[in-house]
Amino acid sequence: RQHMARGLPNQKPIAGVKRVIVVASGKGGVGKSTTAVNLALGLMANDPNLSVGLLDADVFGPSVPKLMNLKGNPELTENNLMRPLVNFGVPCMSMGFLVEDTAPIVWRGLMVMSAIEKLLRQVDWGRLDYLVVDMPPGTGDVQLSITQNVPIAGAVIVSTPQDIALLDARRGAEMFRKVKVPVLGLVQNMSVFQCPKCSHQTHIFGADGARELAHTLGVEVLGDIPLHLNIRETSDAGRPVVVSSPDSPEAEAYKKIAASV
Ligand code: ADP
User: Fold this and answer.
1) How does pLDDT run across 10-22, given as a tens digit for each residue?
2) Which domains does the chain carry?
3) Does this entry carry the keyword Cell membrane (predicted)?
């Protein structure tokens, strides 16, 4: 904590990367990884000239291999750096490429800091305009360590409109503020469910919770993502909605968020 006050002397840019955007959430299961993946793809959909990478920093529950339909071990470059695996034009790196799904959680616990260090420093990204980082959920040591080690252009915080998720999201926002990472805004996920049969709209997790929290925190709501079967199904199939249904309202919602980072 002391060296934080002295202006984060350990922060070192990731070679070749212009802007690091972290996608965070207070707790798991609110749609953080789905947002991170579709945000990365949305940045490219909005501007095909951009190069965008995706780093899955959720070492305990990596989602990027499944969401981006990637598996296998990264090759090493001559400089002993790991070469990201690529799909949909996005180079990706994840703990899921380095260990088996069945690797014991205890082992991961012991290795977590050195794993994060490898994922941050030993990857050959080439040149990237954006590196989108799917953070682990919550506000623990790993999250703090990432924010202390790498200069971050901004954080996007994902929350459902539900009270409990919002409380945790507030803690996340406060952590970023403490380490001087700009909070770009909140994404309100699963805000509305529209019945595919009768089009009736239901606010399953409440209506406007994230909007109220954003107001209290003095940050923007970058967008509302509906609770939609297409998002869940395309995610599970490893064909994220922004690439598989690019003109759908769901994809547009992610592209709108991408346009604001
Ligand atoms: P987290 O990264 O916060 O743990 P995920 O992105 O893995 O959350 O999402 C959890 C589950 O919810 C996944 O099955 C995902 O497909 C689904 N999901 C996320 N956002 C939506 C949404 N807007 N509509 C439907 N399903 C969603």
Assistant:
1) 789 999 999 999 9
2) 2-6+18-259 (3.40.50.300)
3) no
